[in-house]
Amino acid sequence: MTRTSGYYIGIIALGLVLLYLIIRALQGDLWVETYRHDESEPYDLDIFVELLERSSPSATSYLDESIAAFDSGDSAVCLVFLGRDFIATPEESKELLDFIEAGNSAFICASSITLPLLQEISANNTGPYQTIAEDTRVDAYIGNDTTRYTFEYRDDKGPTQRFWSYFTIQENESYKKEVLGEYVPEAPSWYSLTDYFDEIDEYDEEYYDEEYDDDEDYYDEDNDDFEGIDKYTVPVKPTTEDSIFIQFNEDGKRVLENFISFNIGEGKLFLHSDQLFFTNYFIIENEGFEYAQKVISHLPNKRVVWDRYHANYHYEGEFADGPPSSPLRFVFENPPLKYAWYTIILTTLLFVLFRSKRQQRIIPLMPRVENTSIAFAHSLGALHYKADSGRHLAKEMMHLFNNFNRRRYGIKRKKDISGLAEEIAKKSKTPIELVKSILELERKIVFNPSSRMSENGILYRKLQSYYKQARK
Q1: What gap in Å lies between CA 295 and CA 60, rounded to an integer?
Q2: Which residues fall within 8 angstroms of residue 4, CB to CB, at 6 or more apart?
Q3: How high does pLDDT run on average in the chain?
Q4: Under 8 Å CB-to-CB from 260, ≥6 apart: which residues?
Q5: Which of 82, 269, 323, 430 has the least C-beta neighbours within 10 A?
Q6: Pairing mode, if any, of strands 267-272 and 154-155?
Q7: 166: β partners
Q8: In this structure, how many other beta carbons lie within 10 angstroms of the beta carbon of residue 230?
Q9: Is 367 part of any domain?
Q10: What pLDDT shows up at residue 104?
């Protein structure tokens, strides 16, 4: 195989790979955690979105601006965020909690909830925070209900491991010594929220009394440096009936919360740590559908407002409109198309690397000179054989006979052939009768227009006998 042929075979193979990836992107289910509200792939959310909209007592609306600029009207609303990342600055987090305190509610379901919001509702930076545990399947329980809901994660190849998000309290030595009264070096890296809030009820009052009793300036509102205690720093214990517990399979004793609620003023904040539970793949099953309905039943019966504002980071200044949107966004959202795009780029780079070098001009191939005498003789013989008359073939055989005698014995044939037979027989030392029979057959065939091709056979055998007997 030449280098050129190998190169073209490689190009064809890459083309087939691209074709396969494109077909994969256009056919079958897309087993990727896309979490789109208006698509029907396994890990999109359009079914749950429809369920929430049907539960809304009036038409839903959208939040596309900061919560401070949002006008909810005369009635309270339920702000719903459903996606992968909930993003909010410290100022926006405080605005959201003020919005809830005024009598509204919020349901935030995301595997990554912005840290400023969690810090606003935490005490002493202990939590709740989000963390993850790896497993293929989890079992969920709603409150004190013993009904188990099983969720098994899979991709296009089958069940596989995944990081499941849940809420926890941050562990540290001072917290364990002051709150729990003990320190266990080999304790697990998580601490249940329910157990934590049971322990912290009395501790918080004592903590703030001891922390700020001696700090008179802290409470002096006339002091220019007065900041005051943030009204959300004291944790609000989540109600048991609003908690959903996950039983992680790798350890039967691990009961962790992934759905908690906080009473804030006149409103309520609901936090769910993983939106995967509400994707189409799970809701189309009876078990997942019942789970989603029970979660919705905990939300207040208020008009639903979809939060689209906190799905992205909001830039300031010259980047106020955010980074420019790429025309390849659709390609990168679909892994098969994304891999096909990378393959095209890699192929182009390989071509530039190996084919952009200066190459010698292709030298044309010179045709090889071939001896066509034998082929000509074959063609000529075929023509003579197909002819009805044998005189032409006989004439060629006699030409060869005369040339043989001339080159070997110096006999030049003339028109007058008297005495020719004797001269040939004498010099070639062959029988005179053989030579005369050859000349006689020449006269009968060559000079007879009605001679047949079959007569040439006799002449051929006579000539062969002469060549064998002729003197070397």
Answers
A1: 19
A2: none
A3: 76
A4: 128, 167, 193, 238, 242, 243, 270, 271
A5: 323
A6: unpaired
A7: 131
A8: 12
A9: no
A10: 92
The residue count for the chain:
472
Let me know: does 62 contact 72? Beta carbons within 8 Å. no
Based on the fold, state whether residues 172 and 212 are members of the same structural domain: yes
Residue with tokens 């256009």: 26
Cα distance between residue 321 and residue 332, in whole Å: 21
Q: 3-state DSSP call for residue 245? A: strand
Q: Tell me the residue ranges of DSSP E strands in 249-349.
A: 255-264, 267-272, 303-307
Q: For the chain, how many structural domains are there in total?
A: 3
3-state secondary structure of 154: strand
Name the one residue in this structure whose structure tokens are 């509610």. Answer: 105
- Per-residue pLDDT reduced to its tens digit, 108-133: 999 999 888 888 876 555 567 888 88
Amino acid at 223: N
Give the pLDDT of residue 179: 46
H or E stretch at 163: strand 162-168
Q: Domain check: are 90 and 183 in the same one?
A: yes
Is the link from the previous residue into 188 a cis peptide, with omega within 30 of 0? no
> Does 424 share its domain with 347?
no
333/262: higher pLDDT: 262
Residue with tokens 């029907």: 40
